[in-house]
Design a protein that fits this description.
- The active site is at 164 (proton acceptor).
- This is Ribosomal RNA large subunit methyltransferase J.
- It is an enzyme of class 2 (transferase).
- The chain is an alpha/beta fold.
- It has one domain: Vaccinia Virus protein VP39 (Rossmann fold).
- It is built from 10 helices and 10 strands.
- It has helices spanning 13-29, 53-58, 66-69, 79-88, 100-107, 123-130, 144-150, 172-186, 201-212, 249-264; strands at 37-40, 47-49, 96-98, 113-117, 137-140, 159-163, 191-198, 219-225, 237-243, 271-278.
- The longest helix has 17 residues, at 13-29.
- The protein is globular, with a radius of gyration of 17 Å.
- The chain starts with 12 loop residues before the first helix and ends with a strand.
């Protein structure tokens, strides 16, 4: 049940997309001085060693973050994200990759809060150790979907929720919809970002229809594909569905996705898209 470890996939094209969107949302929240809550439902270990056995076994980062790492034409939209990666690799050699909790830790201010959940028996201790000295963070070995009930709304009425399950369980596709409904019911003004993999396109179409049926407004879909959809095994694309996105996010992603696609997919296959599932 809990065999999935993100270290196998750290720094791949899906991470680049996810963490670009995550960093842009966090930066938009920081425009206002009022504090906010960052809630990560499936936080993982925190950091990943790209020279370790898990990442080296798949080598997915070589077609992801590695293709961006030494470029001197990085767009402004990627600055905050890449700065975090650089902070983990100060000597210029790409050894470590930050998971979403570390990106949040580096970008959040001293008066913002982090709520991080992880159930994996190997990843949770690593996450807890990583954040042991961070007074802003609460690290819980708990079902992240339950946090959408128990931790919302935040006391400051400002919050960004990242929902990033492994989809190892088929039930995750349904759980993310139910989780968003639970969270939105308690905190309708929050920003929710849901990551998804495209392994079978039909599953994503079904998930989007179920999300449309919730009646929730302001739902933006951002997708990055490296290969055409296929019924063969393997992820061909990934996406972020953002509820109540910051007003600049649509244009920021429309601006940066063509560059990312050119750099990460030099053969030109796949696709990018930014569109509204449900407008305001």
């Amino acid at each position: 049940m809990l065999s999935y470890r993100h270290s196998f996939h750290a720094g791949n094209h899906a991470d680049v997309l996810k963490h670009t969107v995550q960093s842009l949302i966090i930066e938009s929240f920081k425009i206002k001085e009022k504090p906010f809550l960052y809630l990560d439902t499936h936080a993982g270990a925190g950091r990943h060693q790209l020279t370790g056995e898990y990442a080296e076994r798949t080598g997915e980062y070589l077609e992801g973050i590695t293709r961006i790492w030494h470029r001197d034409d990085i767009p402004e939209e990627l600055t905050a994200y890449i700065d975090v990666v650089k902070a983990l690799n100060p000597n210029g050699s790409l050894r470590y990759y930050p998971g979403s909790p570390l990106i949040a830790r580096h970008l959040l201010r001293e008066y913002d809060e982090l709520n991080l959940s992880e159930l994996h028996p190997s990843d949770f201790p690593l996450l807890r150790t990583e954040f042991s000295r961070d007074q802003r963070a609460r690290v819980l070995r708990d079902d992240g979907f339950q946090q959408l009930k128990s931790k919302l709304p935040p006391k400051n009425r400002r919050g960004f929720v990242l929902i990033d399950p492994s989809y190892e369980l088929k039930s995750d596709y349904q759980n993310v919809i139910q989780g968003i409904q639970e969270g939105y019911k308690r905190f309708a003004t929050g920003t929710y970002a849901l990551w998804y993999p495209v392994v079978l396109r039909q599953k994503i179409k079904r998930m989007i229809k179920e999300l449309e049926a919730t009646g929730i407004r302001k739902i933006l879909q951002i997708e990055f594909g490296v290969r055409p959809d296929s019924d063969q095994r393997g992820m061909t694309a990934s996406g972020m569905i953002v509820i109540n996105p910051p007003w600049k996010l649509e244009q920021q992603m429309k601006s940066v996705l063509p560059w990312l696609h050119q750099v990460l997919v030099p053969e030109g296959t796949g696709h990018t898209s930014v569109k509204w599932i449900v407008p305001e």
